[in-house]
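Sat 14:20. Reprocessing the chain from the morning session after the first attempt stalled halfway. Input below, unchanged.
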Amino acid sequence: MTGPVRSRWGPRAPAFIAWPFLALLGLPLLSLAVGSGSAHLAEGWRDPAFWPALRLSLVSSTVAVLVVVVLGTPLAWWLAQKRGGAARWAQLVVDVPVVLPPAVVGLALLTAFGRQGGFGQALAAVGVTLPFSFAAVVLAQVIIGGPFYVHAVAAAFARVDDDLWLVARTLGHSGRGAFFRVALPVAWPGVLAGASLCWARALGEFGATLLFAGNRPGVTQTMPLAIYTALESSVASALALSWALAGLAGLLLFGLRAVAQRGAGGAP
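Finished this time. Tokens:
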């Protein structure tokens, strides 16, 4: 039935139907580009909040990605290997931050690690306070961006051929050696793609950061928060920050696509 329907619509119909949605997706970015003159951007870059927010976003998101890679890779490997009740519950825990609004995640973090929270009181007893600190920014980005990494890497690990694993074990490699010499190199494009997705999501995080870390310039004010603040006083600064954030996101997108194409080209 697919053939007659396709031939009846003709080759031009799908593209014609797609244009309205493509326009809907592209018009906001086009408006941002058209409305951002060079003078406005230069004025925004001279804003005292611009460079601290940019530096804080880059540092915090990079730290968040490193934490996610170290902690999330073993979890992704376990999820790719295991089936059953425990794995399903673990997958549910990973999925929850994806479907929850970021503001809810931020409030949950504040409830858990705030001064009145159980973990917050335990940390306060040893002199550690998480809310409204740089560590809170990183933690919010880890919670929001981590699931994207785990999903991508678990899917990459699941595609590793079992025969490669068995051959590595037959040749005398331990489980750890087979993981680092076989599974991880084969799944490496997926690992890079997951890290890029996690970094992009952490870089643009707003709601959880605002509620859990606050909006303190130079301490917890990331680029999305600086854009929100700048709109109240300087549209030029907001546009400059938006362009910088869009540029970083674009670089991540092109890097992600390059990794995916390289992985597809090298796949057997």
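The longest helix spans residues 50-81.
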